[in-house]
Amino acid sequence: MAGVLSMGKKQNSEKNNVFDRLIQEERIFRNREALASTYIPPEFPHRDNEINDVANILKPALYGARPSNILIYGQTGTGKTAVAKFICKQIVSKAETEGKKIHTAYINCKQTNTPYGILTNIGKTYSNDWEDKVPNAGWRIDKVYSALKEKADEDGGIAIVILDEIDTLVSKSGDDILYHLTGLNSDLDNSKISLIGISNDTKFTSWLDPRVKSRMGEESLTFAPYNALQIENILVQRAKMAFHEGAVEPLVLSYCSSRAALEHGDARKALDLLRISAEIAEREGKEIVTVEYVSKAENVMEHDLVRSLISTLPLQPKVTLASIILNRGSKENGQQTTGEVYNTYSLICKRFEVEQLTQRRVGHIISELDMQGLINAKVVSLGRQGRTRYISLSIEQSQIDGALDNDSFLSRVIKEIKMSGYLSSMQLRLI
Ligand SMILES: Nc1ncnc2c1ncn2[C@@H]1O[C@H](COP(=O)(O)OP(=O)(O)O)[C@@H](O)[C@H]1O
Ligand SMILES: [Mg+2]
User: Fold this and answer.
1) Which of 183, 201, 214, 414 counts the most CB atoms within 10 A of its CB?
2) Is 200 exposed, middle or buried (0-12, 13-18, 19+ CB in 10 A)?
3) Beta strand residue intervals within 136-272, DSSP E
4) What are the φ/ψ torsions at residue 430 (nearest 5 degrees)?
5) Which class in CATH covers the domain with range 313-425?
6) Whose CA is nearest to atom 6 of ligand 1?
7) Which residues, in sequence order, are bridge partners of residue 196?
8) Distance 262 CA to ligand 1 centre (A)
């Protein structure tokens, strides 16, 4: 007993708390948050015009008038979400100092895409007691709509509602909800609402009812992709906040930017690349993030991409891919013909009760997998016997392993077929 006590005392007096070392070791990051995807920076290099445009459209809210609805278009990573959130924060703080009532709601339609969910999210911005009055589900939608109207009029302010990824809302729930929301103003006596719709897809308005289309797009603007230099400026700004001085080689920033610029100027990709590079360097106990870590980060990101690509494949392509994975030991450098893929494919279909398609259709699926970069299918001429395709995997073993870990169907198929002895009966080498 005494021994235990004195041991505890000794540890305390030496102050060797396990976290001491870890905290001291924060040599790379000063503020990790600054690289998080949800972080809203205080400034937006190269978005002055866009910020000005949106702010001008919203300005009437500060005089108590309803701002026009806005549609914002642009590819991923062009700053649409961050800029819209930033402006909403700014207008709310301005309204507070001016004694005006402005409420803002941010709704990501990928997560919330039912009319009920949207109305509830808007209702919550007016007051905390919304949830006490309106249940999260179960009411008829017109009752929720009336509750929202009542709440808005009781409050008397202006609500600015961001509907991010608005195209998902329309593809999942149709445009009825937008019809009602854009028509809400004519039902309101004492309050106003305006909408900011954000979309990566410029064509999404072509699915809208013409009335919804004209009401929603009273104003519209497009965020252009960034070039490499612009992304670099964005990274420099973030790096100053996120890292200790000198912790990141300057070349790292230009390398991350040029990689992201290749992919349609996506600032998010660049920031992710920078963050993951620094995290890997940190994990390896390094004090400085060098270019070498950007390559490592790219590998990690590509692995993640392949893994999610495979796990989201529909059933038929997945079975086809499984066949190619299973067959790859059968030939020198893993090349196989469409016929060989089809044999294994048929076997899997029978065993796992999957509908068996014709060889021709499996041929189309093979072309799709080729276009997605998962396999390589090259056409070769067999002289008089016509032509065939040599098919091989274009992903590495470690990526396949990662995909199998992540996908229980695929890993079960591979395991059971291997165990069934089917492959050895075809005199294939063990995989
Ligand atoms: N001009 C900019 N200045 C600073 N950060 C930016 C800028 N543009 C984009 N970002 C950052 O890049 C990331 C992606 O931006 P985001 O607004 O999510 O893009 P989008 O919504 O267009 O896909 C976010 O972390 C965002 O803060
Ligand atoms: Mg976005």
Assistant:
1) 414
2) middle
3) 158-164, 192-199, 219-223
4) -65, 145
5) mainly alpha
6) 79
7) 70, 162
8) 17
Cα–Cα distance, 61 to 59 (Å, whole number): 5
Element containing residue 381 per DSSP (H, E): strand 375-381
Whether the Cβ atoms of residue 359 and residue 338 lie closer than 8 Å to each other? yes
Looking up tokens 């390896």 gives: 284
- Ligand 1 in contact with 45 (CB < 6 A)? yes
Residue 289 structure tokens = 């993030």
Q: Of 19, 163, 179, whose CA–CA distance to 84 is shortest?
A: 163
Question: Where does 48-223 sit in CATH, by number?
Answer: 3.40.50.300
27-37+227-309 has CATH 3.30.1360.120 classification: no
What residue ranges of the chain are covered by domains with CATH 1.10.8.60? 27-37+227-309
Residues of the chain with CATH 3.40.50.300: 48-223
CB-count exposure of residue 378 (10 Å: 0-12, 13-18, 19+)? exposed
Tell me the three-class secondary structure of 207-225, residue by residue: HCCHHHHHHHCCEEEEECC
Residues of the chain with CATH 1.10.10.10: 313-425
pLDDT mean by block of 10 residues, the chain; 431 residues: 46 65 77 91 96 97 96 95 97 95 95 92 89 89 94 94 95 90 92 96 86 93 95 96 95 95 90 96 93 94 88 94 88 80 94 95 94 89 81 87 88 89 54 39
Which ligand 1 atom minimizes the distance to the CA of 36? 25
